[in-house]
Amino acid sequence: MLSSKVNIGQRDRLLTFIRAVIKTGMSRPSTNEDEVDHWEILTYEWAFIKPFQGNEAMIAERLTETHHVIANIRYRDEITTRDRFVLNGRVYEISSIPPSKDRYLSMDIIGNLLDNVTWTPPT
Length: 123
Fold this sequence. Notes:
It is a single chain. The chain has a single domain (about 10-120), classed as Bacteriophage SPP1 head-tail adaptor protein (Thrombin, subunit H, Beta Barrel), CATH 2.40.10.270. The protein is built from no helices and 6 strands. The protein has strands at about 15-20, 35-60, 60-75, 85, 90-95, 105-120. The mean pLDDT is about 80.
């Protein structure tokens, strides 16, 4: 894991955190799973990014890139594993948020690249 002692000047990448907006209403089919209507911007945060692990694999007869990063940001309690973040136009799902060791001054977020998902900011 990253050291929790990250200088503010090392946080040089702007991440866009996005959250799913769930469909509701009568036209929604009755299922146990939530259906995502769209993704909205939750917040922006400067981060220190460290590559964690990368790989390529054949999944469903398709070459798929698996890429993991650790993003260190200042502590935000509203960010959860249900959210995603965008880095350089690429979408990462948040797979884990380890407990903070520095009295909630910063937090590490482990993200997995979603190579088949694109996101463009609303205009």
